[in-house]
Design goal:
By secondary structure, this protein is mainly α. Helix content is 46%, strand content 0%. It is built from 2 helices and no strands. Helix 1 crosses helix 2. The longest helix has 16 residues. The termini are far apart.
Amino acid sequence: MVRKTPTDKVTVSRERILRAVASSSAIETGERTAVIEKRLKSHTRRFTQLTLAL
């Protein structure tokens, strides 16, 4: 078994962040995850000046 040291950085892809945001929002709103994820992936946004932190 290989142990990672706490200093190892984990890179997270944009797809995984979008999935996490969509599933969290789905739990809170009761909407389907796929619908929210599709909305996040589309480039039509209400607040164009805001970006997703990576």
